[in-house]
Every structure is written in structure tokens, then in C-alpha cells.
Input
Amino acid sequence: MTGPHLTPIVRFAPAKLNLTLAIVGRRSDGFHDLHSVFVPLTLADRLSLAPIGTDGLADTLYVTGFDTGPPEDNLVPRAISAARGAVGAGPGRPATPPLAARLEKVIPVAAGLGGGSSDAAAALDGALEAWGADLDSERRLQVGASIGSDVPFFMGDGPALVEGRGERLTRLTGVHGHPGILLVTPNVAVRTPDVYAVFDGATAGGDGSVRMSSAHLAQELGNGLSATDLVARAGVLASANDLLPAALLVEPGLVPFRRALTRVLGRPIGLSGSGPTLWTLYPSLGEARSAAALVEAAIVDRTIPPLGAGPPSIIATTIHTGHEERTT
Ligand code: C5P
Output
């Protein structure tokens, strides 16, 4: 126990991409068992936390950048409350004064990029540090999982095979080099529970091929794969998402949008998580940036049809391998 920090605690909260996403079963709690390869991206939100006094005041949240909606929908205050609950109050426990949180939101919201879950993991870890409190790693993971299925992934570093509801993690060596990733997030709401509900209602479900692709990639990333080899697998990976057909049914406008994007880029296009973010892999960040410029032009001249309430977010980024600067 070291007592509360006087200077703000700063955390970067990376986005994630699902390179594969197999649904391997339905659970009795209504969730689904997954087999999914998650990679963290250099695209990251920035969270700062500072104690604002003593008891009686409430935690506050100030958000810049993308709109995260009503504060009650934001996972940052929820994570701070959960951390406070886990630390507990009473003699011998560290004080958990209210925190002022400031979130710079650069990851598109409700996009299949895990931004909210990553913010929550950052808030949980940052709150404990701000209070000079500690929890053992098992308890931390339990608290993270209680906030959201994707939160445990963000509580550690690097790519991982994610199983169970999201709580079983096998960290992978990952990718050598810095493959570029183009993210195109149409401005439409695709709610995750709706996508899972459509998946459940479909008679076919997953056919097992995605599970095989996912197992194969996890094995390869376990040993480490070069950026070039990863890009060579883009065709297989782009169809290795069991939620893709359901996401296209929930938002049919994604079908012509994705088709046009494929024509403009001439590359396989994948879906991250339950969408609506579409992704393409490149050998380098520079190539992903050039592709971003092509997509921007195609949106303006309507080669790619308009979809939703405004233009898509178009972001070039890379897989985060641990040591490079945090940028888009
Ligand atoms: O845990 P989280 O709040 O992120 O989950 C959002 C929704 O996604 C859940 O309500 C559920 O419909 C679905 N989900 C699922 N199985 C998972 C993860 C999420 O069914 N493993």
C-alpha cells in the first residue's frame, strides 16, 4: 500500500482486431464460447485518472473525440466502481477517493474494435494505481470479466488466443514486424447482442471451418509469424469470422459497402468482432495509409455507396508489438 497518487495516472487503451472469430458453443448463461485470435493495435485511447479529494464527491468523466454516449453507458465509471468494490472499505484497506477521469477517445465507438472494454481495463488498472491499492492477478481478471467479455484480453499484453466467454487467454508470440491494417468503420449501429441473436436463429451456425482456421492461426502465431506471412493468409482470415453472415443480416447495407470496398482495394476484407468495422491487411503502415487515401476518394466520388448517418471512419494503423510509439 503506497497511498493515493497526487499526479494523474495515464494509461493507453489499445483497440483490438479479431483476426479469427469462431463460435464453438452456446453457454447456459446465454453467452457463447469462442475460439478467437485477438491482436492489439497501435490505435489507442488515452485515459488519465486523478484523485479529486475525499469522500462525498462522485467520480467524474470528461470525454473528448468520439462521442461515447450517455455516461451511464461508458465502461470507465463502471470499472472504477468495480475496482472500488473489490478493494473494499474498512480498517487496513487503502482509501479509494473519487477519481476525475479524462478519456481521449480515438477508437471508433461500438465498432467491433473493443475500445470500451480496453478503456475499462485501463480504468481498473489505473484506479488501483491511483489509490495505491493492489489486487492479485486472479481477482483482477475476475473483476475485469464481470465488466465485459473482452476486458480480460486488455488486462495483459500482446496477441492472444481467447476462449470461453473471453476469460481464457493464451498469450501468443504474435507477428514479427509491423503489418499495416486499414480499418473502415461505417457510421451504422450494429449491436453485438443483435448479431449473436441472429447467429443463434440461423439454422446453419458455424460449419467448423472457421474453428479450423482459428486453431491454425493460433498455432502459427504461437511460434511467431512474419508480417509478409500474415498478409499471405489474409484471404483465409477475411472469411474466418462466424459472425460475418449474421452481421450482414443485421445491417444489409454492409453487403454492397463491402463489395465496393473489395473492388476499390482489390484485397480480402474481414470483419472485426460483430462489426461493423471492416479490415484489410498490408505489409506496412505506409501501404495501409495509401489504401486509406484511396478509400477516402472512393467515398467522396461514391464509388463506395454511402451507408449510415455520415462518412465512415477510415484509419490506418498497425499491430502493437509492445515497444513502438502509440500512434494511429
Ligand atoms: O460481455 P459483453 O457485454 O461485451 O457482451 C455483449 C453481448 O455480446 C452479450 O450481451 C452477448 O449477447 C454477446 N456475447 C456472447 N458471447 C460472448 C461475448 C459476447 O454471446 N463470448
In short: The chain has eleven helices and twelve strands. The chain has a mean pLDDT of 93. The chain has two domains: 9-171, 175-318. The first strand starts at residue 9 and ends at 26.
